[in-house]
Amino acid sequence: MNTRPILDSDEGPFVLSVSLNADCSCFSAALETGFRVFSSKTCDQKVAREVGGGIGCAEMLGTTSYIALVGGGKQPKFPQNKVQIWNDQTNVVATTLEFKTPVQRVRITQTHLIVVQLNKVGIYKMKIPPERVTEYETANNPYGLCELGKSTVAFPGRTIGQVKLFDLNTGNVSIIPAHETPLRALALSRNGDMVATASEQGTIIRLWSFPSCTKLAEFRRGVDPAAIFSLAFSPSGTMLAVTSDKSTLHIFDVGSTQPADSKQHKYGFLSKVPLLPRQFSDTYPTASVKFEMGDEPTTWGPHMKSATLGAGIPGVPGGRPTKGLLGWLDDNTILILGAGQDARWERFSIVIEEDTGNKIVAPSGWKRYLDD
């Protein structure tokens, strides 16, 4: 294994971060030298742009030619306190937003632009130039946690473990006291009626209804702590996918928060025995499978589990290359994307075993997407 520090790598190109567009049809890769766009379904490259410097994050506006760029890496192309709205048809910056502190992440749709800083979230109407709607202070948010749906924005609140939801249509604000420790991952369902949350502890994933903000379920990823990389609802909202630094993909059935009987539970009849620790009765994944995080230097590691640590690669969400990013192509097909020196695209299929009727997750394709 190559144990040299990431930023000293001379084996290019090196992917700093990766991001999916709103409908998961494409993904963008931010590099030390520019950015690229790929088809999510086939992993075929659609766009490759060398811009003469590092891009920390690149967020696509649907399938249009507009991409929000933030500088990053060893030699950033742009200052990290600016968001550049790049028009790929003309190869020029259409407009720029400047801030007092570095930008952690950007979210963008046809109607809105969300800019995430370490302790602030700004909400804008997507125009040229963007029109500010409002902004909110947040707890430390080095991972740039923020989910932008069709009519809702979800992001950390001012209190640790809290989720704030902003209704883009009405301006109403809702608050969910989701966890006692800092948030590590968020997800919104496609129709906006559910929110999934995970904390730095990484053992329990909680499911909340919206707009009522009541807790619907708790799912147990495992007993030992882990860094949750990504949460994602299936298009129909019937399943929730979870990845972690254990290199495992878990699938939970959202519509069935309790097993039909003890025979289907991980711990069998023990799940019904009173007074045993709660992990014996908790709801475990319906299916799990290993994914490849990629062969990376040892300097990329578990010390970045904590949202209180901000050191790392400048301009990159979380300070380390994206790993375990989830996207659903349809209700039976999941993608896992990773950045870094060993940048990977993996596809998994959800199938039902004929003999047992159990749901399983099976690998159905993978690629190092920067390889020629």
TrEMBL record:
Major location (coarse): membrane
Record's bilayer topology term: Peripheral membrane protein
GO cellular component: vacuolar membrane
Subcellular location(s) per record: Vacuole membrane
Keyword RNA-binding included in the entry's annotation: no
Organism superkingdom: Eukaryota
Alphabetic keyword roster: Repeat, WD repeat
Similarity comment: Belongs to the WD repeat PROPPIN family.
Protein name per its UniProtKB record: WD40-repeat-containing domain protein
Species this protein is from: Ampelomyces quisqualis
